[in-house]
Design a protein that fits this description.
Elements (H helix, E strand, L loop, with lengths): L20 H14 L3 E5 L11 E5 L2 E8 L6 H12 L9 E6 L5 H11 L6 E4 L1 H9 L2 H8 L8 H31 L5 H8 L4 H17 L8 H12 L2 H5 L1 H16 L4 H11 L6 H11 L3 H7 L1 H8 L4 H9 L1 H8 L5 H5 L4 H15 L3 H14 L4 H17 L17 H7 L7 H24 L15 H15 L5 H9 L4 H9 L1 H7 L3 H12 L4 H12 L2 H6 L3 H16 L5 H18 L1
Parallel strand pairs: 3-4, 4-5
Antiparallel strand pairs: 1-2, 2-3
């Protein structure tokens, strides 16, 4: 084994490349030990690590570290390692990835690798050359063990900054200890998750301010020594108005869950009045509506405490995001709202995605009675508009009834050809000139039908990801799997028509899947004008997630951005963002995606 490299100066990066690969993996192992990880296992020497040189636990979080002693590390290199990990059985798959690499990694490569993993800053971390060098230098024992170098002595100014940082860390620790001690002393268990969310704030200064805000809220509510229902809700009221809890959506969402825990414990008439007094002032604002919706989704007890009348108003709200939160957690809400919504309520909802979900909840309620189901489908036929999405949904509902019930339907022939489920249809698809259009219509119908069945399973609380699903997008990932297969199966001359038909679908998950596959289908289209036309439809979509995904995919390919006219696309996306913002959707990620594409647009003009 080569000897340790001898370093005589500290004004350059450490010579990691002079370590053997065995030494480098041992160095990474030591770093994880010093970080405080537990149950650390070194798999790298076994030859069958499957993308995991080291496996460890950070608390209850399983972390897989990939150690790369290389001169370059591209997005493709990282994506290959991600694919190895995604191929593991679910029980072996880690919650977080850590890449420890001896070279610099560009921000574009990092973003692409994170996208492949389906993660973010929290669950896909990089220790590239600069970060690795800083972390190793901070540990004198590693410097001595691997580089024969004593602990680094920083210049006075850097030492002052380091002292200041340590002081900040100490203040954070003291505040966290005070808050944890308060929870133990007052037995305020619902707030424990909120403190955990505060501890996960990345920057020490932000974490300190969040802890201080919590301490101040406890004092303002008069809950320093004793907590009851009234002052527990008062703590939440004070935190709700805090700027940090308004800006950081993770903290605000956890606050909503804590509110759900608190109100879910209120069963007496007096306590119900207390919950009503808390809810009523929030019904007039968009932020208040969303907070109550997320609180109700915590568990059925919280939904019951908030009450049928308030929930019915929230689910029929003009804010799509509010309705979406409740519909996404329908198994929790259904015991309180199952009989409170009618077909007339659903068809009056303006947002197409929420209208579809409400109709599926009605299908779930009436599907066990042939007579009631037939009346529901006939009523839906008389109220459906002429929009392609509504027609698609009604046809898919009829197809579902034809496949799953024995009721007599007058419009059984409203679809072309024989009915097949999507996994069978793609396998036997007929792409001959005479049957290609019919095949495309059937694929769109089968995808709609598949989405209805998945949402019905979700409404029953029984949805499980498809065995072939290797994505982290839940039901959307399932739909993406079949959209990808359909695009691969279609001859190139029919791809544009297939994409157009998929964009007409009622399920926004299908349209989102088309957006995620943008770079794949772009290569399949011969006509750039047709590709740009499909892209324009995606960035004009009513659902902001579809618009955001299309722009994010586009921004990952700078050369593509420079080859197409982006000015008009940016304007369309801006209109979509304004519309989504008016309707109450959070648009931070969409705004960021627009800004990235707009940057390429300005470069192209220059």
């Amino acid at each position: 084994m080569p000897s340790r490299p001898f370093v005589t100066a500290t004004q350059h990066e450490l010579p990691f490349s002079q370590l053997s690969w065995e030494q480098f993996e041992r160095l990474c192992f030591r770093l994880l030990q010093i970080r405080g990880y537990s149950r650390i296992e070194h798999l790298g020497g076994s030859g069958n690590e499957k993308g995991r040189d080291i496996v460890a636990f950070d608390g209850n979080t399983k972390v897989a570290a990939q150690c790369k002693r290389v001169g370059t590390f591209s997005a493709a290199d990282g994506q290959r390692e991600v694919e190895k990990v995604l191929a593991l059985a679910p029980t072996e798959r880690p919650d977080r990835l850590l890449f420890i690499v001896t070279c610099n990694i560009s921000s574009t490569a990092r973003n692409n690798i994170r996208r492949s993993w389906g993660g973010n800053l929290a669950n896909c971390e990089f220790l590239a050359l600069t970060e690795l060098d800083a972390e190793v230098r901070a540990n004198g024992s590693i410097l001595q063990e691997f580089f024969q170098l004593p602990e680094y002595s920083a210049p006075p100014k850097e030492r002052s900054d380091s002292d200041q940082e340590r002081g900040s860390q100490g203040a954070v620790s003291r505040a966290e200890i005070k808050n944890r001690d308060w929870i133990v002393a007052t037995r305020s268990i619902p707030f424990q998750r909120l403190l955990q969310a505060i501890e996960e704030v990345e920057q020490p200064a932000g974490r300190l301010e969040a802890n201080r805000a919590f301490l101040e809220a406890v004092r303002s509510a008069g809950a320093v020594s004793r907590v009851n229902e009234r002052n527990a809700l008062k703590i939440c009221e004070v935190l709700e108005t805090n700027n940090l809890f308004q800006v950081n959506w993770k903290l605000r969402r956890m606050l909503a869950r804590v509110i759900g825990d608190i109100v879910g414990l209120h069963l007496s008439d007096q306590q119900k009045r207390l919950v009503g007094a808390f809810c009523e002032p929030r019904l007039g604002s968009s932020d208040g509506n969303l907070l109550l919706a997320e609180a109700a989704c915590e568990h059925t007890a919280a939904a019951s405490a908030i009450g049928t009348d308030i929930l019915r108003g929230l689910i029929l709200s003009k804010q799509p995001q509010v309705s979406w939160q409740l519909l996404r957690r329908w198994p929790v809400i259904a015991p309180v709202l199952s009989d409170a919504l009618t077909l007339e309520d659903a068809v009056e909802v303006r947002d197409a995605g929420n209208r579809r979900m409400l109709l599926i909840t009605r299908l779930q309620a009436v599907r066990r009675s042939g007579k009631v189901l037939k009346r529901f489908l006939d009523g839906m036929a008389s109220t459906s508009g002429e929009k392609p999405a509504d027609l698609h949904l009604h046809t898919a509902m009829l197809a579902w009834a034809a496949l799953n019930t024995t009721i007599d339907l007058r419009r059984k022939t409203s679809w072309p050809g024989p009915l097949n489920r999507i996994h069978d249809l793609i396998r036997v698809a007929n792409w001959t000139p005479k049957r290609s259009i019919e095949t495309i219509e059937l694929i769109a119908l089968a995808l709609e039908l598949d989405s209805i069945e998945l949402d019905l399973l979700n409404a029953d609380g029984a949805y499980q990801p498809h065995p072939n699903e290797r994505y982290s997008e839940g039901r959307y990932g399932h739909t993406r799997h079949y959209v990808r297969l359909a695009l691969r199966a279609a001859p190139s001359e029919h791809v544009a028509l297939l994409l157009s038909s998929l964009i007409d679908c009622a399920d926004e998950g299908i349209r989102w899947a088309v957006a995620t596959e943008l770079l794949s289908w772009w290569r399949l289209l011969d006509n750039q004008a047709a590709a740009v036309g499909i892209l324009r439809r995606l960035v004009s979509d009513q659902h902001p997630w579809v618009v955001r995904e299309a722009l994010q995919q586009l921004a990952t390919d700078p050369l593509l951005c420079q080859s197409i006219p982006l000015g008009g696309l940016v304007q369309l996306a801006g209109k979509s963002k304004d519309s989504a913002q008016t309707e109450g959707w959070p648009t931070y990620e969409l705004t960021t995606a627009i800004q990235r594409v707009a940057t390429f647009a300005s470069i192209s003009e220059d």
